[in-house]
């Protein structure tokens, strides 16, 4: 997947980062295999990019939600922000993590959650409420807390927040995927 940004210069090579910030570039490249997505833009501020990358490593690879739950939360966030790049990158990851096609379609088309598995519906509902209403209803929160526990609901909320920040970066700087997502922004 190529990154396209016409708003500010992108950083795609280590030599573009000040020498005293090479460590930031290296950490991002090492943990993600490539410098892509929001990072070529974020590396205009290497310290910020490094801190964002560090948090992302926890959220994406170490936090408590299952891969399926995490990727469904990410797709929900991408859809709520109409973030084409985030969707295009994570939709195949979601499939690999076991998110069923009907859940992906329901998120993409902003459809009812009635036909989804209970946990899938809970993750999407939690994300939709938080991102649309800037709050989560007591009913949804209690269901999520009962299902995920204190650490799980904290990690789920932070996952949504982290990918919201990335969606803002990707959208503001117009970083686009090669292919269009299954929704119109």
Task: Describe, in plain words, how this protein is organized in 3D.
The chain is mostly helical and 185 residues long. It has two domains: 14-62, no CATH class; 67-172, AhpD-like (Up-down Bundle). Helix content is 64%, strand content 0%. It has helices spanning 22-32, 39-42, 46-62, 67-80, 84-96, 101-108, 118-133, 138-172. Helix 1 packs parallel to helix 3, helix 4 (67-80) packs parallel to helix 7 and helix 4 (67-80) crosses helix 8. One of its GO terms (molecular function) is peroxiredoxin activity.
What multimeric state do the chains show? single chain
Beta-strand residue percentage:
under 5%
What is the share of helical residues?
A: 55-70%
CATH class of the largest domain: Mainly Alpha
CATH hierarchy: architecture of the largest domain = Up-down Bundle
On the 0 to 100 scale, the average pLDDT is 93
Please report the distance between the alpha carbons of the first and last residues. 19 Å
CATH topology description of the largest domain: AhpD-like
CATH H-level homologous superfamily name of the largest domain: AhpD-like
- The H-and-E topology, N to C, reads as HHHHHHHH
Structural class by helix and strand composition: mainly alpha
Could you say how many structural domains there are in total?
2
Which ranges are low-confidence, i.e. pLDDT below 50, for 5 or more consecutive residues? none
The largest pleated sheet is described as: none
């Amino acid at each position: 997947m190529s990154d396209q940004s016409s708003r500010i210069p992108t950083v795609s090579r280590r030599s573009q980062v000040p020498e005293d910030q090479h460590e930031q570039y290296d950490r991002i490249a090492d943990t993600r295999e490539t410098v892509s997505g929001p990072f070529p833009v974020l590396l205009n501020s290497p310290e910020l990019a490094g801190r964002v990358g560090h948090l992302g490593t926890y959220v994406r690879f170490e936090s408590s939600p299952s891969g399926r739950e995490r990727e469904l939360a990410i797709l929900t966030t991408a859809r709520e922000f109409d973030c084409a790049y985030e969707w295009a990158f994570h939709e195949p990851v979601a499939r690999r993590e076991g998110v069923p096609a009907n859940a992906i379609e329901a998120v993409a088309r902003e459809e009812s959650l009635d036909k989804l598995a209970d946990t899938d519906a809970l993750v999407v509902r939690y994300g939709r409420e938080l991102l649309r209403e800037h709050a989560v209803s007591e009913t949804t929160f209690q269901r999520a807390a009962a299902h995920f526990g204190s650490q799980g609901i904290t990690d789920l909320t932070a996952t949504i927040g982290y990918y919201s920040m990335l969606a803002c970066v990707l959208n503001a700087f117009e970083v686009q995927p090669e292919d269009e997502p299954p929704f119109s922004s």
